[in-house]
Design brief:
heterodimer, A: mainly alpha, 2 strands, B: 182 residues, 2 domains, four-stranded antiparallel β-sheet, 45% helix
Chain lengths: 394, 182
């Protein structure tokens, strides 16, 4: 890996790209095998992995939108990195096709005979039916794709063009973009995760999913930065101050996640209505109970305690470890949302969890790397680039 | 009646701009002074390090008080709901920690906020009615365009002549003693 100090072009990424592609191919081969032999387990593992990588893509889209919207300075230096992840998001539509073609394997409401015997599902049918579900999925990806492309192309144009004017243009896109993001992210999580248990509903579910998305991209960015810097890339430009800010956001959104998770649990616990409490009951049976408790500890108490103070946030080593930790618990969180619909009473991990994870992830990383080496890895003509490099936390 | 000898309570020096003040603060710090302060119209980046101020102790106080708030709220609700006035509400156990969490959360924040404000005032020895720098008329410029550095006479390194010489030597303008003017 080599960075040209004048143009900020990254070269010699072939090794990483090939490695990602190899992992992806291996994983996808495992997926095909799993599809033939363990069809049930395959689809649930596949959905878990897909949602995980989707949350990283959505998180990056949100980060870029937010960056432009608040006219941020500190994050200019890492903006292109996030844009490269954001522009890879539409690739996941390709991975969503197998789900659209096999709705019966995941979604109970897609069975016509089940709907015929179920009053509630009949009431929900105008929204939860295979045709409208597929149309919505395409609309979500269309919106994400258009937003990502618009922001990405404007950002590339900015490299050789009017820095200030195009920054303003991206800001103008981000206003309505943020609104569209909020709606699509919410409804995508309703459709793809919440409707796995079609009787159950929670209006805060979209916010819960979003909190995980943003945490995931913060951890992913921190990890990528520390990886790049260990290879000698951006060692002078990205400073401990940037890690500190990522750490602050990570801490804040750990609390936000817990706040939202508790709000959802609290109202359902208080209301005590069987059709709502059943969802938590499924996650309290057998060893699911231990995973539920572990999430409280691992997704909130531990990162809260560690990231509370200023010192660990200004330590790259601690931040790297915390990023890996956050990604692991984020994956467990999605596993906890998806898998109880298949593995009732008792959960276990499957080799398909790994195969689908590296299958989708390897391909995803491959496309990110491809973008990474095709243009400068920082927005070289952004008017606030120098301020971002020199930025210091008071 | 013998003329009353007025005590010198400190030395005040003015500097041309934030950069000069910053460098002056570093030199005063290196000379060993602890009881000195800088007076500027706006926060100057890097001043904490230049003055040799360590990290604030306030965070520890806030964390401790926040945790005390957590325990207070928990104990209060346990005592009220399960001991002093037990009432079964919607069939839930008397001690239902889930129901207590919002109050625990709020009281933690309340205690932390009070600890922050009161602790900040306490560590800064505020509010106070008087400070030797107010003997100078020029100090008013500190809210407009003046950059001042004052050293108090209570500092163990303080010597009337040496301290004034130091401030002059490091570029202080119109160095003056802070003496009560009635």
């Amino acid at each position: 890996m080599k960075l040209d100090k004048d143009t900020f072009n990254l070269s010699e990424l072939e090794g990483l790209r090939k490695f990602a592609l190899l992992l992806g191919a291996l994983g996808l081969a495992g997926c095909v095998f799993g599809f033939c032999t363990h069809r049930d387990q395959f689809f649930y593992s596949y959905l878990t992995s897909l949602i995980f990588w989707l949350s990283i893509g959505l998180g990056s889209l949100f980060f870029v939108l937010l960056h432009h919207l608040v006219d941020a300075t500190w994050s200019v230096i890492i903006r292109r990195l996030l844009e490269n992840v954001m522009i890879t998001l539409p690739v996941l539509l390709f991975f969503f096709i197998p789900i659209l073609l096999n709705l019966h394997d995941l979604y109970h409401w897609s069975h016509a005979d089940a709907v015929a015997q179920d009053e509630l599902l009949q009431q929900k049918e105008p929204f939860l039916n295979p045709a409208f579900f597929s149309i919505r999925a395409v609309i979500y990806f269309l919106i994400w794709g258009v937003l990502a492309n618009k922001l990405y192309n404007t950002s590339l144009k900015q490299d050789n063009g009017d820095g200030r004017g195009l920054a303003l243009k991206m800001r103008n896109i981000s206003g309505p973009g943020m609104l569209l993001f909020a709606l699509t992210c919410t409804f995508a999580s309703f459709d793809w995760i919440m409707s796995l248990d079609p009787h159950w509903y929670s209006t805060i579910f979209g916010v819960y999913f979003f909190a995980g998305c943003f945490l995931a991209i913060l951890a992913f960015t921190t990890l990528t930065l520390s990886f790049l810097q260990s290879k000698g890339v951006l060692t002078d430009e990205v400073t401990i101050e940037h890690y500190h800010d990522l750490g602050k956001l990570m801490f804040a959104f750990t609390v936000f996640w817990a706040y939202i998770a508790f709000s959802q649990y609290f109202l359902i616990w208080y209301g005590n209505i069987p059709e709502e409490t059943i969802w938590y009951l499924h996650r309290w049976e057998g060893n699911w109970k231990y995973l539920s408790l572990f999430l409280v500890l691992g997704h909130f108490v531990i990162p809260f305690t560690i990231l509370l103070s200023r010192v660990p946030k200004r330590n790259i080593r601690v931040m790297t470890i915390m990023s890996v930790w956050m990604l692991v618990v984020h994956w467990l969180d999605i596993f906890w949302l998806v898998m109880p619909n298949l593995q009732k009473h008792h959960f276990h991990f499957s080799w398909l969890d790994i195969a689908t994870f590296i299958g989708i992830g390897g391909t995803f990383i491959y496309f990110v790397c491809k973008r990474l080496s095709s243009q400068p890895i920082v927005p070289v003509n952004d008017p606030k680039l120098q301020a971002s490099i020199k930025f210091v936390n008071v | 009646m013998p003329e009353e000898i007025k005590k010198i309570e400190g030395v005040l020096a003015e500097f041309g701009n934030p950069k000069e003040l910053l460098e002056a603060a570093e030199k005063v710090r290196d000379a060993g002074y602890k009881r000195f302060d800088c007076h500027t119209p706006f926060p100057v980046h890097g001043m904490d390090a230049a003055m040799g101020l360590g990290p604030s102790r306030l965070g520890w106080l806030v964390a401790a008080m926040g945790f005390a708030g957590t325990l207070t709220a928990l104990a209060m609700q346990w005592w009220m709901s399960a001991v002093d006035y037990p009432v079964v509400i919607s069939g839930k156990p008397l001690f239902s920690f889930q129901a207590f969490i919002p109050i625990i959360f709020e009281v933690t924040i309340l205690f932390s906020a009070f600890a922050t404000v009161i602790g900040m005032l306490g560590f800064n020895i505020l509010p106070r009615f008087h400070h030797p720098v107010f003997y100078s008329d020029r100090i008013r410029k500190a809210t407009d365009d003046g950059f001042f550095l004052s050293i108090e006479s209570t500092d163990p390194f303080f010597r009337e002549d040496k301290t004034k010489e130091l401030l002059t030597a490091i570029g202080g303008q119109e160095v003056e003693y802070l003496v009560a003017n009635d």
